[in-house]
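Q: May I have one protein plus its fold?
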Amino acid sequence: MKSKSFRVLVVATLIMGVSGIEASAGREKGKVDLGKQEYLNSCAVCHGSDGKAQTQIMDILKVAPPDLRQLSKKNGGVFPMARVYEAIDGRLAVKSHGTRDMPMWGQRYSVEAAPIYDDYPYNAEVSARARILGLIDYLYRLQEK
């Protein structure tokens, strides 16, 4: 009797272990890259989904967008985080973007554009900065070595 109970316990433990492994693998597959999502939503139309600046609208742009994978290379091997941050939040005037507010997403990364939630308190500045930093992290990961 004890050996049968022991076998049932072992089998149940194995089933739960395998289920746990499959569930954690599913979570890994379903991971969301917020920086990549921000990039695809806000930058890819001009800079390309891979950052190479090869897009279907290149012919209608007045100024060709830069290859965003080359930011570090063009800055002596150092990723220019502060300059990228300022280009995204609008403090750095980028001639090809037109006005200080990038035409494709305007104030998307400003405190004013942070979502408004009436049901719980939150810091709008932290929300906007988190989106910018996620985007910068993704751009950093795109850099060619």
Observations:
- The two ends are 64 Å apart (CA to CA).
- The first helix runs from residue 2 to 29.
